Amino acid sequence: MYDFAYHKPSSVADAVAARSGAEDGTFVAGGMTLVPTLKQRLAQPSDLVDLGGIGELHGITVSGDTVTIGAMTTHGAVAKSAEVQSAIPALAALAGGIGDPQVRNRGTIGGSVANNDPAADYPAACMALGATIKTDKREVPADEFFTGLFETALDEGEMIVSVSFPKPEKAAYQKFINPASRYALVGVFVAKTGGGVKVAVTGAGQDGVFRVPEMESALSSNLSADAIADVAVDADTLNSDIHASAEYRSHLITVMAKRAVAALS
Amino acid sequence: MPEGGTGIGAAVKRVEDKRFLTGRGNYTDDINRPNQTYAYILRSSHAHATLNSVDTGAATSAPGVLAVFTGADMETGGLPCGWQVHSKDGSPMHEPPHPPLAKGKVRHVGDPVAVVIAETYAQAKDAAELIAVDYGELPAVVHMNDALAGKSLVHDEIGTNLCYDWEIGDEAQIDEAFAKAHHVTEIDIVNNRLIPNAMEPRAAVGEYDRSTDEYTLFTTSQNPHVIRLLMGAFVLSIPEHKLRVVAPDVGGGFGSKIYHYAEEAIVTWAAPRVGRPIKWTCDRSDAFISDAHGRDHISKAKMAMDSEGKFLALKVETKANMGAYLSTFAPCVPTYLYATLLAGVYSTPLIYCNVKAIFTNTVPVDAYRGAGRPEATYLLERLVAKCAREMGMSQTDIRRANFIPADAFPYQTPVALQYDSGNYTATLDKAESVHDVAGFEARRKESEARGKRRGIGYSTYLEACGIAPSAVVGSLGARAGLYESAEVRVHPTGSVTVFTGSHSHGQGHETTFAQLVCERLGLPMSNIEISHGDTNKVQFGMGTYGSRSLAVGGEAIMKAMDKVVNKAKKIAAHILEASESDIEFKDGTFTVAGTDRSMAFGEVALAAYVPHNFPHDELEPGLDEKAFYDPLNFTFPGGCHICEVEVDPDTGVVSVQRMTAVDDVGRVINPMIVEGQIHGGLAQGIGQALLEGCVYDADGQLVTGSYMDYCMPRADNFPSFSAGTEITLCAHNSLGVKGCGEVGAIGSPPAVINAVVDALWDLGVHDMPMPASPQTVWKALKAASPAVAAE
């Protein structure tokens, strides 16, 4: 990796200041994407602002019908959290299925959401559950947050503080893994809330995570796997690579969505 | 040896594991020499291009840089090839030059272009970014058919991409047999290209001592003496007595660390020029584009049968990818280690095989765990499975009808090899019983009730290892003999150091070989040291590959121990004042037959080194014996692998439910180590069948260049294996051993794919390429039965 200046602030304000003071700085949360990128010399930031020392970014709180997870909370902590397991078991299960134990003990929800890798799991949960992403400046609904491949609504220098999930009535996530990387080749998160059913798909879209309105309306009137058996996402909007053609991904979306509906709890 | 002992047959825990499991192994990258520098190799980013210019000026003056060299600087020999194959017209194979640093042209992504040597690795890497290479891009040939069509020439000077066009057997005679056959079954087979991925990436440290003019190379090698010979004699012109090669602890090889690689020559050559030791360590990304790849065959095969399903003749045409250059063993893999195995366990009387070896703009391809035998086994066992379908016979009936009978050994095949022993019915019987084949139908119904398809697949295979009788391989084109050497040095107080020319890179030789010494000399394990991997310690060695260490290296140790015992008997006879012929040696004690007069092994050892009253004209002091063992024949492990899979027709996911391997590996020295070797082999075999596949794009860029896309097997890809043995003894070595290192990887892939095909047969899927990834299976299902896939 190339040389960079390293900062480890202890407050959000200091972190934002360090970042804005840098010529070409970047935040580093768990580093699960950034560090390998640096090691391969595919990125050359002038400054790295490590968020690991900011206490207020850690932790999980449940208040009423909302589960709020601090940006620096690891996947492992979410997976093991009794509160999350009780409030949104599908979210705990999703976190427990990210990467491997090493990744889960380093990787964070804030890092994953900010990075918006098209094959990451959390964006699907955020979209289907109707999460709110809280930054140092504002609150952004998930539907407006994920704007494209590795693109989000975050402004330059803006950082995620926490992600809040309203408790659904039922939810389930089904992931079909890329056999090599074990990222989501297709991941489908289905959530039923008072406001209806939402279906979000990760791993497959050319622009990253997306919702499937046809499935949502079918499921809103009939919450069963059969209701969406004939609903397919247009392959022209999907990714194609050596592991899965767009056609195969389209097929898997329907299969995984059906399985998620069958697994709703 | 009593139960719980440490001799032959005991499941002794591996003595080497203490240091491996506590992180105290001494690997090449752990070695740091005083005043050491670091090398970074700049590699070609193009598959095929002319090197118009390589401007190293800015790199040379970058911070910390000591030297930058390119192919123009390195006036040495090229990397040699160890085997010569002749085409069917008698002409020798094309053997284009293979410079350690590319000259004039680069021929694959990863071809070394320049080396930067600096105070730190980071400085070397930084400086390499300053090297300006002017590439003149040329069209790349990636697919073998394009290469054969001459769409672009990998080596202009030879005027063709065809390295050789080899055959074995009589084609006219075969065609006659096919014309008379009752039925002919044909199959197209692709053996997918694999990337080895040993856990430890390659590394090399080169050092030069100006005061003695001696060179030392520490390297991740399976055969340090071979590297000394090839690099010293052919590349750098350094005589053996001035060149020491050390292969310390090595973390897995699987064949990929047999070969003499450019980086070894580069650091050794550059060390005197820089005047300091130089370390090069490969990172994983570079390993993908610089370690020799494996397999990569495209074949057509057909079997002629009579009305009873008896095999009459087999004809095979194979294209084998050599990559851009000939790696050390490459030419022999698709010929002498492949076509000679096409009889398998069957009494097929006529066999013909034509092999075209082809240059492409890809990483060189060479032996990888099994080397030729997996390719032969996969082709044959897929073909036999198809023969059974077409003849309306069961998978086992067709095999039993064609097995070489247990009383037919020695058995001469039509493809050069003579098998010494085996019992293929016995391994099949035992495998069927262990697997509970009888319960398959009930399991299949249970799967079906859950919407899954279940299938069972067989592979009754044979391989040739214990490589190799020098006379035989010499006649086949090996430029070296493939014996092994050993030295058994008995120390004055009776402990023993064994120096072996074999090399352990995970196999557990320090345990298995010590067990031989326990058994033969009656010593405790704690008195035995196994030493390997250093040309300054071991007299000579051909190294470890082709499951040869025990059958060849172990026999050399046995031979040296025989010499030790004979000498010790002379000493005991002298001291006990008896006739040498009356001395008996048993359980570590020399006894005068029929008396109670005896000496312990240690007492004789001490006498050997304190020879106060030796008759000098008859008895030399010391007890240190050397031996070379040249095997009389290959050894022929074989067996039966049965795989049971469940396929999810909705997604194409294949999951291995049961994997049974009953192998005849000859006598088992350490059953725990044998089982471990078979487990590892099965993991690689199932990996090839379901997960691993090297993909290049049309421009010769490696698409599967990291673990994000190259699917390495993980523990959860496998069920708990049922691995057992059902042995016959090797008839031509003293231990009766055959070899176990590769059987798992050789036997299993066709069992897996035959099982997948069996699971999907009724849905119209009658063929399945490797790796049978979810997408591949889903596409096959969709093509066979659109209604099923669209469900």
Automatic annotation (TrEMBL), chain A:
<dbReference type="GO" id="GO:0016491">
    <property type="term" value="F:oxidoreductase activity"/>
</dbReference>
<dbReference type="InterPro" id="IPR016169">
    <property type="entry name" value="FAD-bd_PCMH_sub2"/>
</dbReference>
<dbReference type="InterPro" id="IPR016167">
    <property type="entry name" value="FAD-bd_PCMH_sub1"/>
</dbReference>
<feature type="domain" description="FAD-binding PCMH-type">
    <location>
        <begin position="1"/>
        <end position="170"/>
    </location>
</feature>
<dbReference type="InterPro" id="IPR036683">
    <property type="entry name" value="CO_DH_flav_C_dom_sf"/>
</dbReference>
<dbReference type="InterPro" id="IPR002346">
    <property type="entry name" value="Mopterin_DH_FAD-bd"/>
</dbReference>
<dbReference type="InterPro" id="IPR016166">
    <property type="entry name" value="FAD-bd_PCMH"/>
</dbReference>
<keyword id="KW-0560">Oxidoreductase</keyword>
<dbReference type="InterPro" id="IPR005107">
    <property type="entry name" value="CO_DH_flav_C"/>
</dbReference>
<dbReference type="InterPro" id="IPR051312">
    <property type="entry name" value="Diverse_Substr_Oxidored"/>
</dbReference>
<protein>
    <submittedName>
        <fullName>Carbon-monoxide dehydrogenase medium subunit</fullName>
    </submittedName>
</protein>
<keyword id="KW-0285">Flavoprotein</keyword>
<dbReference type="GO" id="GO:0071949">
    <property type="term" value="F:FAD binding"/>
</dbReference>
<dbReference type="Pfam" id="PF00941">
    <property type="entry name" value="FAD_binding_5"/>
</dbReference>
<keyword id="KW-0274">FAD</keyword>
<dbReference type="InterPro" id="IPR036318">
    <property type="entry name" value="FAD-bd_PCMH-like_sf"/>
</dbReference>
Automatic annotation (TrEMBL), chain B:
<dbReference type="Pfam" id="PF20256">
    <property type="entry name" value="MoCoBD_2"/>
</dbReference>
<dbReference type="InterPro" id="IPR036856">
    <property type="entry name" value="Ald_Oxase/Xan_DH_a/b_sf"/>
</dbReference>
<protein>
    <submittedName>
        <fullName>Xanthine dehydrogenase, molybdenum binding subunit apoprotein</fullName>
    </submittedName>
</protein>
<dbReference type="Pfam" id="PF01315">
    <property type="entry name" value="Ald_Xan_dh_C"/>
</dbReference>
<dbReference type="InterPro" id="IPR046867">
    <property type="entry name" value="AldOxase/xan_DH_MoCoBD2"/>
</dbReference>
<keyword id="KW-0560">Oxidoreductase</keyword>
<dbReference type="InterPro" id="IPR008274">
    <property type="entry name" value="AldOxase/xan_DH_MoCoBD1"/>
</dbReference>
<dbReference type="Pfam" id="PF02738">
    <property type="entry name" value="MoCoBD_1"/>
</dbReference>
<dbReference type="InterPro" id="IPR037165">
    <property type="entry name" value="AldOxase/xan_DH_Mopterin-bd_sf"/>
</dbReference>
<dbReference type="GO" id="GO:0016491">
    <property type="term" value="F:oxidoreductase activity"/>
</dbReference>
<feature type="domain" description="Aldehyde oxidase/xanthine dehydrogenase a/b hammerhead">
    <location>
        <begin position="22"/>
        <end position="139"/>
    </location>
</feature>
<dbReference type="GO" id="GO:0005506">
    <property type="term" value="F:iron ion binding"/>
</dbReference>
<keyword id="KW-0500">Molybdenum</keyword>
<dbReference type="InterPro" id="IPR000674">
    <property type="entry name" value="Ald_Oxase/Xan_DH_a/b"/>
</dbReference>
<dbReference type="InterPro" id="IPR016208">
    <property type="entry name" value="Ald_Oxase/xanthine_DH-like"/>
</dbReference>
